[in-house]
Structures are given as C-alpha cells and as structure tokens.
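We were asked to recover a plausible sequence for a given structure. The inputs and outputs are reproduced exactly as logged, with field labels preserved.

PROBLEM: sequence recovery
POSITIONS: 549
GIVEN STRUCTURE:
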C-alpha cells in the first residue's frame, strides 16, 4: 500500500464512492437549485461549469482534502520558484518563466533567467518582423511565403495546435507547414507544395539529435540544394530552435539564426519558448505575446485562487475521481470548434507523456492508476463517430466540452446550431432518458404496445455521464494561451497527487534504441534471427516483400 492509498482522504473517498455511485445527477440537480453556482468558477471570460459531474458537496470537500494532503500548493510554489522538481533529470520545470509577463525574477542556480528569456523574445520579434516585413528574403530575393517547421513531439504538436487554432489571426501570404513523421511521405508531400526560393525551414529540436527530426532536416537540406544548386543558400533558408547550439552549427545554421531555449523547459511545455517561432512567423509577435499574456493570466489564477475555485485544480481532482474511483481509463476532449481540431493531439503528449508513469517519486511502483488515455474529436463531428458509446456504452468516459460563444465565421445560424448541440449533448449525457420518457415518445410516434416492448430497452439512456463544460467568449490568442496553460497545470496537479514526476519521459527512449539495432539488420537485407520469432519473421517477410529503403 502507498501513502496515497493509505491516506485518510483517499480512504474516505473510497467509502464515499460506495455510497455515491448509485446517485443520479438528475436527482442531485433536482435537490439543489444552487448546484450550478456551487460547482462553477470563472477566470476572466472562461467559465468552467463542473456541475454535470457525479459529485456532492461531500465529494468535492474530500477531493479538496486530497489536494491539501498532497501539498499541491507547496509543489505549485516549488515549480514556479524554479526548484528542481524534475527529480530524475535534476532540473526545474519552468515553462511558466517563458510567459512571466510580470518579469519578476525567476532564479535557476542563482541566476535570474528572465533577462535571457526576454533576450530570446526580442530576437524572435526582430527576426519575425524582418521576415514578415519582406526585409529578410530568400537567397534569390524572393519573399518568404512558406515556413516549414521540422520537429516532432513537443517541437511540433504545440506550435501546430496553435497555428491551426489561430488561423484567423494569420498574416495573408504566409503559410506554415509542419513536418514531423520520419515516414518520407510527410516531408515529400509538404515539399510538393513549396518553392525553395521562398521557403524557410525551422529545425525545431531541443536536443538536435531526435532521429526523425534530423533525418527530415537533412532530407530537406538535400532537396533544397538539389532544387537550387546553391549550397551556400542553406544558411539563409534554414534556422534552428534548440538547446544544442554546437550541433546546429555543424548542420550549417548561422549563429544569428539560432534561437535558444533551455533544459528547464520540457518539450511538451515548450511552445511558449523559441519553439513557438513558427507561431510568431505565422501570427506576428504581438499575437504571440497576447498568447503569453493569456497563459500568464492562468498562471496567476492557478497561483492565487483558493483550491475550491481554482480551474486547473478542479479539473485535476475530477479527473482523479473518475480515473481512480470510477475506473475510467480515458478522458475525452470535445472541442466544439473546428480550429481546435488538433487540441486532443497536443493534450495527448502533454498528459500521457507527463503522467503515463508507474514509478512514483520514491522509486516505488504505484498501487493505483495514474495518467488517463487522452483522446477526442471536434464537435459536432464527435456526435457522428462515437457518441453512441458515450451515451449507451458500458465504459465511463468523462469528457471536457469546450466552445466559444462567438464564431470567427458567422454563417446563417450554423454557430447557433453548434451551440445548441453543445448544450444538448452535455444535458443528454447527464439526464439520460428513463423508460417512462422513452415509452411516452414511442407512443407519441404511434408505436403499439408490442412494438414498444420490442424497442424500448434500446431507447433507454442511463445518463449520469459526467462532463465539464468550458465556455468562453471567443477563441483568440489570449484565450488560447489560458486554455493551454490550464491543461498544463491540470496535468501538474494530477502528477503531484499521484506522487509522480510529470516532467521526465524515460519511456520514450527504449523503442528508439531498439529501432537503431533493427535498422542495422534491415540494412543488410539478410535473414534475421536475432530477436523473438515474431520480430524475426516480420522482418524476414518484409525482406521477401522487397521493402523500400
Ligand atoms: O517524445 C520524446 C521527446 O523527447 C519529447 O519529449 C520531445 O518533445 C520530442 O521527443 C522531441 O524532442 P526534441 O525537441 O529534442 O527533438
């Protein structure tokens, strides 16, 4: 048993769960007209309505006790203060310093890091304004019209979700493309759509050693030289974002075209750093700084708001309630906004690479579930893909529903229809439909008793499906920054309560090393028997199929 599962709060929650699990939210709403005001909170125009959750006052109090017992506030302060909370890499986790718009000192090993954070922001502003203003041109004088970001994981997903989401704020005539997969199709297809003379490649890699990124970077450089016949021009068309300046220089990146960040910024938390360069080239520095301000606003909310009204803390506690007491294996993100279609992909890395852990901070195997499987789809598409399971399946799937009140693209009453679906789905998931209600509907449709008897079981909805509704005025850079920071802090609070280190990712290393070994075998194109019979036979069959290099 662990301290967590032995703790009074955990044991009280277990006992409470036994009583609560058969309560229906319908009844909880019936019994308490104040349920919404009690279980909702605001930060600026961002409203979190968490009243459609399977909680009572007692549940909420016990969950808050769990946070108190885990000393969430202390760990929070440790993180903001630059303490080395990433214990297996002996590093701070200071993505919050990157958006510290108050510019108060943040100390790392006795150094206030804010001057260098601000220096890089200035370097990014200067460079982006030259490119967007047409002063920084290609080797043959062409305007830069296309930016290709070559990166993977946190060096791709964060900037990618933001560029997708902020498209309405983008400068016309500037396109941003993202290449991440080592599958040659990814780079090949992107290169078909750009011209070397007007294309700027950003090699984004904290380590500057990631296999996929370096292969794509070299292939892009080869393509550029082949297409232009001008090797010297590489220096003008390739820039780097990295902590590893030496290797970037070896690639041919000019010092003035290197944008640094630091090892106290985790990859999945790095979009606020120079990794956000594609965002800045696409939207402009002012918009990027608005995003930083939105994130900083959420940081201040997280730091200063009492736990019971603290949005990231509440999301974290509710996630633990379902993950650890209802045995929910996943958490779904339903963004009712087409610009947020890549949000689940970003949150998958943020959450699952942070909290997909089995060993706690004491080096012991946990005896409880940790990070959930994150997935999702835009609304209303989700309703036509998997809402059958959400409504009538056997698996509990807690979900966040997000929507802006205002659309960037008013079209007839379509946004209003989207809103109606958003409100209807969260209500239907909560209320369900009783046999009596279903029978009345079927009678009204003219069915006879025999037919109703046949159909009725399939028309009943158990309901009691929990959702969080996150409603805000509009999806602008500031709100985008706040929402992304909200999820970062949710993940952090869950990691604290689960007593795991959310800031390392040793689990991603093993597969990479094995891939290198197998690559050597594939290159020989000779019969393989070095591995398990499955791997051997797969490789040997692939050889028979005369695989592509
Ligand atoms: O997925 C493993 C990982 O190390 C991520 O944490 C990181 O965001 C990604 O690979 C890319 O790493 P780099 O930015 O060093 O290329």
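RECOVERED SEQUENCE:
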């Amino acid at each position: 048993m662990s301290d967590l599962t032995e703790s009074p709060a955990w044991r009280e929650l277990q006992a409470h769960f036994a009583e609560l699990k058969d309560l229906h939210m319908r009844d909880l709403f019936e019994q308490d007209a104040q349920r919404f005001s009690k279980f909702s909170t605001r930060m600026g125009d961002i409203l979190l309505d968490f009243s459609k959750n399977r909680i009572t006052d007692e549940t909420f109090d016990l969950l808050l006790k769990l946070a108190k017992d885990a000393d969430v506030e202390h760990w929070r302060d440790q993180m903001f203060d630059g303490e080395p909370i990433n214990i297996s890499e002996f590093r701070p986790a200071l993505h919050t310093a990157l958006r510290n718009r108050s510019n108060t000192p943040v100390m790392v090993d006795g150094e206030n890091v804010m001057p260098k954070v601000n220096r890089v922001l200035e370097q990014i502003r200067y460079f982006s304004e030259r490119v967007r203003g047409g002063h920084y041109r290609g080797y043959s004088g062409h305007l830069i019209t296309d930016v290709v970001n070559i990166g993977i994981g946190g060096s791709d997903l964060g900037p990618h979700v933001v560029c997708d989401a902020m498209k309405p704020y983008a400068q016309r005539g500037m396109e941003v493309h993202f290449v991440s997969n080592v599958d040659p199709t990814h780079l090949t297809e992107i290169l078909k759509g750009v011209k070397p003379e007007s294309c700027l490649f950003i090699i984004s890699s904290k380590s500057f050693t990631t296999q996929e990124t370096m292969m794509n970077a070299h292939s892009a450089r080869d393509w550029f030289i082949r297409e232009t016949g001008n090797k010297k021009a590489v220096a003008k068309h390739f820039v780097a974002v990295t902590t590893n300046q030496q290797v970037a220089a070896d690639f041919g990146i000019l010092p003035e075209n290197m944008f640094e960040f630091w090892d106290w910024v985790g990859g999945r938390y790095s979009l606020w750093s120079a990794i956000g360069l594609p965002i800045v080239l696409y939207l402009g520095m002012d918009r990027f700084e608005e995003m930083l301000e939105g994130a900083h606003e959420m940081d201040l909310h997280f730091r200063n708001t009492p736990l019971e009204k603290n949005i990231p803390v509440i999301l974290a506690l509710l996630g633990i309630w379902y993950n650890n007491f209802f045995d929910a294996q996943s958490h779904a993100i339903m963004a009712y906004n087409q610009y947020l279609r890549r949000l689940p992909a970003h949150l998958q890395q943020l959450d699952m690479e942070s909290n997909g852990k089995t060993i706690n901070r004491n080096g012991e195997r946990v005896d409880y579930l940790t990070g959930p499987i994150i997935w999702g789809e835009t609304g209303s598409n989700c309703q036509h893909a998997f809402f059958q399971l959400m409504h009538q399946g056997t698996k509990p799937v807690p979900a966040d529903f997000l929507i802006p009140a205002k659309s960037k693209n008013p079209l007839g009453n379509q946004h209003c229809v989207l809103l109606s679906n958003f409100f209807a789905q969260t209500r239907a998931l909560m209320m369900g439909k009783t046999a009596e209600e279903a029978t009345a509907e079927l009678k009204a449709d003219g069915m006879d008793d025999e037919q109703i008897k046949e159909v009725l079981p399939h028309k009943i909805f158990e309901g009691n499906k929990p959702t969080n509704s996150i409603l805000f005025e509009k999806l602008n850079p500031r709100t985008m920054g706040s929402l992304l920071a909200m999820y970062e802090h949710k993940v952090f609070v869950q990691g604290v309560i689960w007593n795991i280190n959310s800031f390392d990712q040793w689990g991603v290393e093993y597969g990479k090393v094995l891939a290198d070994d197998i690559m050597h075998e594939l290159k020989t194109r000779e019969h393989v028997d070095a591995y398990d019979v499955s791997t051997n036979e797969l490789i040997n069959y692939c050889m028979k199929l005369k695989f592509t290099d």
